[in-house]
Amino acid sequence: MKKYIVPETNWKMFFQSVNELPEPFSSALHSAIFDYLANTAQDIFPNFKDENLAIIFAPFIDCPVSFPDDNLIFLHLQEINEHSQVIYQLGHELLHVYYKSPSNTPMFWFEEVLCEVSSHLFLHGFVKEWSNSDNPLVQSFADFTLSYSNSQLQESELVNLKQLPLDYLKDNPTGNRKINTYIAAMMLPVFQKRPDFLAECRKLSELYVVADLNTFFNKAYSHISPEYHLELKKLETLFI
Q1: Domain housing 193
Q2: pTM to 2 decimals?
Q3: Residue 158: exposed, middle, or buried by beta-carbon count in 10 A (0-12, 13-18, 19+)?
Q4: Secondary structure of 211-236 in HEC code, one letter for each residue
Q5: Domain edge (last residue) among 75, 99, 123
Q6: Bridge partners, residue 15, by sequence
Q7: 150 and 36 in a common domain
Q8: How far apart are CA 36 and CA 45, in angstroms?
Q9: d(CA 223, CA 80)
Q10: Do 134 and 167 have their domain in common?
Q11: pLDDT in tens, 120-131
């Protein structure tokens, strides 16, 4: 396993390539991930790139996992070849590490929804960066990654957000992945217009102990800065 420094960050990635792509594809893929991660992360989680963070590729685990208090992320992948999956998993776990929320709370499912939002903000952020690249090979990754984002969002289950069952809110802290994905798809346009709102929503983690959405959103306005109240209201109207 080798250590790789992510440029313009205090982040390190650890992985061992077992299926090296031929040149120039290998260098282009490395550039596509490493050279654009700092800018994309900065747009979503301002200044998070300055924290010490370790990202370890671990194909032997069952699913991605993070240890927020240790700034440690394990991705369920061997290496960076599956670039869209790398970004998708990384976007999810980066939010957990950035928020550092307790997971044994009734409304932790809300953070899982925001993690799904984060994954797609990162995917779309990379697509935007790659589309402006001078390297045609890097540009070529954009269409597939956008399609990957769309296909992931389609793996959802329709639900009436204004009538979420009580047992979903109280007794299922991580939620249901397909329902979470549907909720994230409904929320995504709000965050696409203002990606830094996702960083601001970290303040809502103090309210995960609340299991009633009316109470949750009533209290949310005193936690979120007034400049983001319009975005918060848009989220509220999805549920209330």
Answers
A1: 108-239
A2: 0.96
A3: exposed
A4: CCHHHHHHHHCCCCCHHHHHHHHHHH
A5: 99
A6: 2
A7: no
A8: 14
A9: 38
A10: yes
A11: 999 999 999 999
